[in-house]
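Team,

Forwarding the record for the chain on the shared tracking sheet. I've put the sequence and predicted structure together so nobody has to dig through attachments.
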Amino acid sequence: MNLKNLFDRKPDSYSVHYEEQQAASTFADHLLALLPPPGSCPVVFTFIGTDRSTGDALGPLIGTLLEEKELGVFHTYGTLENPVHAVNLVEKLALIEKEHNRPFIIGADACLGRLKSVGNIQVGKGPVKPGAGVNKQLPAVGDAHITGVVNISGFMEFFVLQNTRLHLVMSMARVITEGITKAALRYSASTLLKENMIYPDSHLTQQAAMYSKHLFKKDIES
């Protein structure tokens, strides 16, 4: 039994519009392709942004929605109540490194882009660069990134972010949250399988395999 298909490498980045059919499932597939092998290191999501600006609230909205789901398999930082933003970013990154042993960090943030890109969600390798759209010099965050294009760039970026429609931001946050939740279920099931492969006939392993096949389809092969 192996898990090779679940974590097959895909291109460095992938973009999907939040209104596309199966957007959350497709997002989950590409997110899983970026993650380290199950059980190898802690996976930490860092959601960057603030609830003081509608457009910049994408990250903390996702963090809050995920916190309510209590996934367990992933660690999350950045919510509406306790945001990670420009003022405390360095402090929060230091805390993450202190609390977790060699974590794999996914940085998530809202961004501005072309008109035709508004509503697109990107997931890929490499860090997110918070503040780049509004000319702030902040440290890059993450081994991988999630970004959501919430509005148009090029003119009065602070004003544009503050006047972004909450409906768009909330809709994108829900799709990303659903995608991370789907990925968490598959990731936790694969972790369970990996931990119990030494007992291939155990009742626990058989249950995990049945659950995994239902979730992965062909991701796990005997």
